[in-house]
Amino acid sequence: MTYSGIEKAEKQTSSWDTPGPWLGMVMGFGTPLCVFVLNAAGWIAGLAAFGVMGAIAFAVIRRFPSENAARIYGSAALARYNTRFLLAMMAYIAGLLAAMFLYNNDMPTGPHAYAVPLLPTLPLLAAIGVMGRYMVEETDEYLRHRTSLSALIGLGLVLVVGTVWGFLETFALVPNIWAWWVFPVWAIGLGIGQGLLARFDRAAEKANDEDAHP
Fold first, then answer.
1. Whose CB among 112, 157, 182, 206 lies 3.0–4.6 Å from 189's, allowing a Cys bridge?
2. How far apart are CA 133 and CA 64, in angstroms?
3. pLDDT at residue 185 in the model
4. In whole angstroms, what is the distance from residue 132 CA to residue 7 CA?
5. How far apart are CA 124 and CA 182, in angstroms?
6. Of the candidates 95, 123, 126, 93, the residue with the CA atom closest to the CA atom of residue 26
7. 60 — phi, psi (to 5°)?
8. Can you give the pTM of this predicted structure?
9. What whole-number distance in Å separates Cα of residue 46 and Cα of residue 49?
C-alpha cells in the first residue's frame, strides 16, 4: 500500500506514534550520559546507565510497536528498519562503553590494540548497512525519495562543517577534532532534513486545502 506525497504528509502528523522519534531521543541523550557516567563514576555505574537506557528503549518498543510505522506510513520496510537500527545503536553504545573501559584501565598493546576501537566502529558500520538495506527494501517511491533527500541534506551538513572547521583548524583558530564526528553530524543533518521536508509537505497540504476550499 502506497500513498501520495500529500496523503503521506497528513499521516506523518502521527509519526510520534512510532518508536523512531522516541528512540532517537533516547539514544541522543542516553549515549553521552552513559559516557559521562562511565568516566565520572566507573564502569559499574556506566553499565547500570546503559542498562537503564536499554530498558527505556525496550519500553518504547513495547509502547509504540514498530508495526505502527507500517500502519501510519504504509511501509513495512520502515518498521523493520526501526528494529534493526535500534539493535545496531544498542550494540554501538555497548561497544563504546567497553572500548572506553579498556582504554582507561587495561588497553591492549600490539595488534590486539586495533580491536578496541573496532568495538564501537563495527556497529556503526552495521547501522549504515541498515540504512542502505532500507533504501533497497522500501517500495514506496515517496518515502524512498524523501529519505534520499534527507540523506543528501545530512551529507551537505557534513561538507559544510568539515570544510569550515578544516580551514579554521589550518589557521590554528580551533582545535583538532577526531574524524568520527562525521557520522553523528550526518545523522543530525538527516534528522534536520526529515523535519524540513515534513514541514514543507504540511505547508503544501495546507495550501492545497485552501485552494480547494477558498
1. 157
2. 23
3. 86
4. 25
5. 11
6. 93
7. -65, -45
8. 0.72
9. 5
